[in-house]
Amino acid sequence: MHDLALQKPGLVGRMFRSLKLPLSDPFAVFGLAVYATFLLTAIFADAIAPYDPTEILYTPEYELASDLRPGEQGFILGTTSLGRDIFSQIVYGTRSALIIGITAAFMVALIGSVVGLVSGYFGGWVDAVLMRLADIAFGIPFLPFVIVLAAFLEPSIWNVVLAMALVLWRDTGRVIRSQVLTLRSRGYVDAARVCGSSDLKIILRHIAPNILPLSFLYGSIAIGWAILTEASISFLGFGDPQSISWGYMLQDAFASQALAKQAYYWFVPPGICIILVVSAGFFITRGYENLLFPKLGR
Amino acid sequence: MAGTRMRSAVTYSNEPLVSLRSAELHYRVGGALSALRGRSSVVKAVDGVSFDIHRGESVGLLGESGCGKSSIGRLLMKLEDATGGEIVFAGEPISGLRGAALKCYRAKAQLIFQNPFDAVNPRFTIRATLAEPLENAGIPAGEREARIIAALELVRLPQPAQFLDRYPHQLSGGQLQRVVMARALILQPDFVVADEPVSMLDVSVRAGVLNVFRDVRDRLGLTAIYISHDLALVRYVCERTIVMYLGRIMEDGPTEDIVHEPLHPYAKALVAAVPVPHPDQSHDPLPIGRGAPDPRNPPSGCVFRDRCPRAFDRCASEVPQLRQIGTRKVACHLF
Amino acid sequence: MTANLLSVRDLKVSYRVGNGHIDAVDGASFDVPRGSIVGLVGESGCGKTTVARALTRVIADNARITGGQILFDGKDIAAIPERQMNALRWRDIAFIPQSAMNSLDPVYTVEYQLNEVLRRRGGLSAREARMRCESLFEMVGIEKGRLRDYPHQFSGGMRQRVAIALALALNPKLVIADEPVTALDVIVQRQILDQLRELQTMLGISVILVTHDISVVAYICDRTVVMYAGRVAEAGPMAGVLTRPAHPYTMGLRNAFPDLAGAASGTLTPIDGAPPNLAEPPPGCRFAPRCPFSIEVCSTESPPLAEIVPDHRVACHRASEAPVLREIAARTETWLAHA
């Protein structure tokens, strides 16, 4: 970071810097490392996974490769009751988890930031309308909303993203609005108005850069939320049967009575992955909190 | 410097550059809920203020916090829209300015802020800070650098080029306030409002900033309003002073007259309260009641009457109008 | 009983910053006679607030008193254990922090907060505390009916009076007030200063008033200590220091200050430059880089605080020439030529 600060950074460097990645906090670094690992796994899933996660596999003796334990017949984490490779499912599950997590986080951060900026900067009736919408969004119980949405629409992993985009901007929006209200009263915003800058220019130049870390914070919270929600939805059976996710794996294991079969290798790995990704998200969040609110003094 | 004091001899053109005609800025405080309970009240930050400022004149707006002096500055800068009355600049009401006309006004009327550390974006270099008004005015990129340097030279920042790539936190308060002044002056405005420009600065550097202000104003022939709570500073830069209290004008006249013989009871107290750096000075109690002005609940009639040592019945029933008394105007029933 | 209630001798306070340290106060010495108001005056960053806080030993976590003595009633309170120091605070030495008026707790009535101090720290009974509250309010000029009010119901000046009442609650011998009137309007400022003077005379206490404003010093103080860059530049009776300053910095300050009592044509003269960075202070006299009178020795040797006339001490190598320098310093060109 320090080297970066010394050079005159280009646009990418500046954007990277304005994210203010919390690299001084060991927990946050751990979180970032976990994300990096999962990200690489998701990108290179085709190369890493030995099998298609939905393919029903057979042993060399042409028997269904079902309920194999880890290591048996070369299956790293064993197979499911339907004879699918658990390790490959985990690898591909990473892909759908991250796709959902990151798109949902992006939507939540983007919509929330735009709402917060517009509402806080312009005030008046715009603010009133947007904040009443936020109030309504706060009144919607999230999980039932996703289930209802999934019932109306085709089952798809995008339901979760859509639901989050429709509902979860409320937190980001509120917080960013309050931040914008503070920034708006700063002298340099008045100064920009007095010297003739347009509202759009003021928002983009003087206000948005200051709320970027905050929207990133809410984005990283949303990643965890999205993955958890998708897992819950899949586990409840409203998920997309076509795409393999960790939640779907848990549901599959549950339906096949994996616990009774003591097939821990089946449901523990996806459980650990969910915990890892979600807690990594919260560790990063924590790092941001220390950065944004140093007075908490942790 | 000698030229400064001779300014009062200059005759101003008859047409005022800036006019306030019963300007009002009222805020409603308390939300819809308290309105239902009949609790909402209106704070009259500026309440029927009228004055004219002629081209080349420097006027001090003097008063305690909450008297509306900064609100007038914000009204003049169109950072706030008047809720009543009219503000006229060069013969044209500013309330209707939009788009290109507003942009044009912004280039002509500028504000110097109170707190230099707040008035510039901490993420911007000095160059970027000063380039912003130039960009808005459509000055081509190639000319900007020279204009920036010239503006910094104007405010007597030594070796201006060395500051261009610095960030605000790398400058001292005095240097930064000069940058703020340079930003206000870079588009060569006709009219400048300075809102307590030295109150955040250390005493030893205040004088430098004040001198630059005086100097630049004289050199560019600026029309200026200097907002302050300190009569000694107002006297240093303005030949005319307007004393305000709770959103209204109490007294308006030549600064020297107000310093030596204030007429309005409030102006009297204010002048007596100005601290002087001498061991031998009057320690008499101030001719004013204790307590503080409450803008939410001002007294009827004359807003000053609850603290006025000379208030009588008429003060409670009738709002005193601003009337000409010799060289100045006073709003008091005693005159 | 000594004549001085408080004597500070060569006080040093140092802040740990990153890997280095900053000597915010580097050898400050001054006296506070019994029953007097002493003004500690200087620009921001000169160490006046650090000195004030060090006297009560309530300083920042990264600050430490690294040397010197603080003799309070003849006892070195820089050296006593924290428990004994704590017993002195508020009972003997009261501190009114900067913007004390904004540090009242908004959820409790003023009476509750006064009571807390009187009963917890003063050990008064409920009845005694109530009576004391009323007499304190009377002392600072607020109707006792307002004891039950919450802080937000008071104006800024009134809250400052409450803060003074809080400080006086346990009859201290010394009150240290950090910029007590800075955020207030001139009229309220004047009224608070009058109140402070009246109470000081009535109770016979000593007051240290930290301020950046020499006109506040001129209005209320008996003595003044001018600080610059962590050191005492000049100290002595207020009238002597302000009318016959012997340190070029004090002379410069007077030129920079607008004076309503003076002639209209007067020109203010700034002191060019800025105070030094205390992480790397200049060798010798710390004012030398901004001083129009600096000579060779000024930039190599730091001048000791020496008595020039009885009771008036100055830290300047050219203190003996003070009367001549004063005349030269009164001219604007002196300071411009230097720039």
Write out key terms for the chains shown:
heterotrimer, A: 298 residues, mainly alpha, MetI-like fold, 13 helices, 70% helix, 0% strand, B: 335 residues, alpha/beta, Rossmann fold, 8-stranded mixed sheet, 4-stranded antiparallel sheet, 34% helix, globular
Q: Which percent bin holds the helix content of chain A?
A: over 70%
Mean pLDDT over the full residue set of chain B = 88
CATH architecture label name of chain B: 3-Layer(aba) Sandwich
Q: Topology as H/E string of chain A?
A: HHHHHHHHHHHHH
Q: Distance N terminus to C terminus of chain B?
A: 37 Å
Give the number of helices of chain A: 13
Question: What percentage of amino acids of chain B are in beta strands?
Answer: 15-25%
- From the alpha-carbon coordinates, what is the Rg of chain B to the nearest angstrom? 21 Å
List the quaternary state of the chains. heterotrimer
Question: What does the main sheet of chain A amount to?
Answer: none
Give unreliable regions of chain A as ranges: 1-8
How is the CATH topology of chain B named? Rossmann fold
Low-confidence stretches of chain B: 1-10
Shape type of chain B = globular
Form type of chain A: elongated
Distance between the termini of chain A: 21 Å
Task: Describe the model.
The complex is a heterotrimer of chains A (298), B (335) and C (339). Chain A has 298 residues and is an all-alpha fold. Chain A has one domain: MetI-like fold (Orthogonal Bundle), CATH 1.10.3720.10. Chain A is built from 13 helices and no strands. In chain A, helix 7 (142-152) crosses helix 8 (158-167). Chain B is of the alpha/beta class and 335 residues long. Chain B has one domain: P-loop containing nucleotide triphosphate hydrolases (Rossmann fold). Chain B has 13 helices and 12 strands. Chain B has helices spanning 2-6, 32-36, 69-76, 99-108, 116-119, 126-136, 141-154, 173-185, 203-220, 231-237, 255-260, 265-273, 313-317, and strands at residues 16-29, 41-54, 58-62, 84-89, 92-93, 109-112, 191-195, 223-228, 240-245, 248-254, 323-325, 328-330. An 8-stranded mixed beta sheet of chain B has the order 6-7-8-3-9-10-12-11, with helices on both faces. In chain B, a hairpin with a 2-residue loop joins strand 4 and strand 5. Residues 1-10 of chain B have low confidence and may be disordered. Chain C is built from 11 helices and 12 strands. Chain C has helices at residues 48-56, 82-88, 110-121, 126-139, 156-168, 186-203, 214-220, 238-243, 248-256, 322-329, 332-338, and strands at 4-17, 20-33, 37-41, 63-72, 75-76, 93-96, 174-178, 206-211, 223-228, 231-237, 306-309, 312-314. In chain C, the strands form 2 sheets. In chain C, strands 6-7-8-3-9-10-12-11 form an 8-stranded mixed beta sheet, with helices on both faces. Chain C has a 4-stranded antiparallel beta sheet with strand order 2-1-4-5, covered by helices on one side. In chain C, strand 7 (174-178), helix 6 (186-203) and strand 8 form a beta-alpha-beta unit. In chain C, helix 3 (110-121) packs across helix 4, helix 5 (156-168) runs parallel beside helix 6 and helix 9 packs parallel to helix 10 (322-329). The model of chain C has no long low-confidence stretch (mean pLDDT 89). Chain A binds chain B through residues 186-188, 190-198, 201, 205-206, 209-210, and chain B through 77, 79, 102-103, 106-107, 110-111, 113-115, 118-121, 123, 132-133, 136-137, 180, 183, 187. Chain C: InterPro entries: AAA+_ATPase, ABC_Ni/Peptide_Import, ABC_transporter-like_ATP-bd, ABC_transporter-like_CS, Oligopep_ABC_C, P-loop_NTPase.
